[in-house]
Amino acid sequence: MVGDGSVSPEFAEIAGPSHAEGVYAPMAQTPETIPGANDWIESYKKKYGTAPGPYSNQSYDAVRLAAEAITQAGGTGSAGVLAALEMMDGFQLFSGPLKFTLEHTLANGGFQILVVKDGAFTLQDTLT
């Protein structure tokens, strides 16, 4: 088992096929494990000249959410932005609909378990 920082195409190359195969990595949802993300991944590659990293979709969602909350609040004042965020339950993010608990934490974390198969990390299970 490795930490999320090891999830990259280079892992299997560095570790070697016999050591990498079957290695597990728990981590947040990655772009290639999101259903229907292929177009987004290809657009990302075309624009930036490289594949999106394991946290690219979360960064994308965070910026979209912040921009929408600021737009709805009519500015960047913290009270207005917080109030707007509280009203955005169900807002469609790239990784799925936004859902908050009563404690203002995410209801659906999008965590998953990846495993190396044939030299690449692949989805083993989701932990939603």
Automatic annotation (TrEMBL):
InterPro entries (UniProt xref): Leu-bd, Peripla_BP_I
Source domain of life: Bacteria
Residue intervals passing through the bilayer: none
Keywords: Signal
Domain Leucine-binding protein: 15-119
One Pfam family per UniProt: Peripla_BP_6
Sequence similarity: Belongs to the leucine-binding protein family.
UniProt protein name: ABC-type branched-subunit amino acid transport system substrate-binding protein
